[in-house]
Design a protein that fits this description.
- This protein is an alpha/beta fold.
- The chain folds into two domains: about 170 residues, Vaccinia Virus protein VP39 (Rossmann fold), CATH 3.40.50; about 40 residues, no CATH class.
- It is built from nine helices and seven strands; from the N terminus they run H-H-E-H-E-H-E-E-H-E-H-H-H-H-E-E.
- A seven-stranded mixed beta sheet has the order 3-2-1-4-5-7-6, with helices on both faces.
- Strand 1, helix 3 and strand 2 form a beta-alpha-beta unit.
- It is globular, with a radius of gyration of 17 Å.
- The model has no long low-confidence stretch (mean pLDDT about 95).
- The chain binds S-adenosylmethionine (SAM).
- S-adenosylmethionine (SAM) binds next to helix 1, helix 3 and strand 2.
- It comes from Bacillus glycinifermentans.
- Its EC number is 2.1.-.-.
- GO terms for molecular function: S-adenosylmethionine-dependent methyltransferase activity.
- InterPro entries: Methyltransf_11, SAM-dependent_MTases_sf.
């Protein structure tokens, strides 16, 4: 297992608390395919997106390499039509195809993005869609103070939206040593690097810049 899995093991509970308040799934929900049989979430973390998609798809599988993140997912977000598996994205293997393959803030952890994208395309039904959201930044690894300033900036709006107690818990997570250590190891792509890398891998894909995040949508258009 790479270091990402171990790093997420350390922060699983607090990550889940913050993400359950802050994660926005609307980009995925507004780009779902017509056929809603099976969906796959790569780097599913604590299962927030799997849970959301399970209300729309017959069956949803989440894969991750962090035991603790998977443990939270299985404990909090198990439904009859959800499944959580320990699997590395670089070793994607399934005996069936999917209608929807998604991933949120995980691709910057992957060592060989072209290999993973190639496997995702092989696993997609005709008419199926791939939707990815990942961090975009003109600075490859922003320094810690950028995240601390961001956490301070978000604190007051979070107080109004979630209450002081929850906002304080989110702030403590965002400025905690293990989380900042994790972020110090992250490497993000610039906007241009997204176009250069993903454009040829997913011909005809669309990009949408959403602040700190880049969204990518690709449809496996049936030939003819
Ligand atoms: C920032 S978290 C995002 C979790 C979830 N997608 C969300 O949006 O809340 C990144 C996740 O990717 C997982 N991850 C990192 N490298 C991975 C890999 N090679 N294969 C599968 N999962 C991976 C981590 O364990 C972690 O749970």
């Amino acid at each position: 297992m790479g270091t990402a899995g171990v790093q997420f093991d350390k922060v699983a509970e607090e990550y889940d608390f913050a993400a359950s308040l802050l994660n926005d799934h609307s980009f995925f929900l507004s780009n779902m395919p017509l056929k809603k049989g099976t969906a796959l979430d790569i780097g599913c973390g604590t299962g927030l997106l799997v849970h959301e998609l399970s209300g729309h798809f017959d069956h949803v599988i989440g894969i991750d390499i962090s035991n603790e993140m998977l443990e939270v997912a299985r404990h909090k977000r198990r439904r009859p039509n959800t499944e959580y598996l320990k699997m590395d994205a670089s070793e994607l293997r399934f005996p069936h195809l999917f209608d929807f393959i998604v991933s949120r803030t995980t691709f910057h952890h992957l060592e060989d993005v072209p290999n993973v994208i190639c496997k995702m395309k092989e696993l997609l039904h005709p008419g199926g869609k791939i939707v990815i959201i990942d961090n975009v930044s003109e600075v490859e690894t922003p320094p810690a103070y950028v995240y601390v300033l961001g956490a301070i900036q978000e604190f007051f709006p979070n107080c109004f939206t979630f209450g002081i107690k929850s906002a304080a818990r989110v702030f403590r997570h965002q400025t905690s040593k293990p989380w900042l250590e994790h972020l110090a190891a992250d490497k993000y792509l610039s906007e241009q690097a997204y176009y250069d890398l993903y454009g040829p891998l997913l011909p005809g894909c669309t990009f949408r810049r959403m602040g700190w995040a880049m969204g990518i949508v690709w449809e496996n258009k049936p030939i003819g």
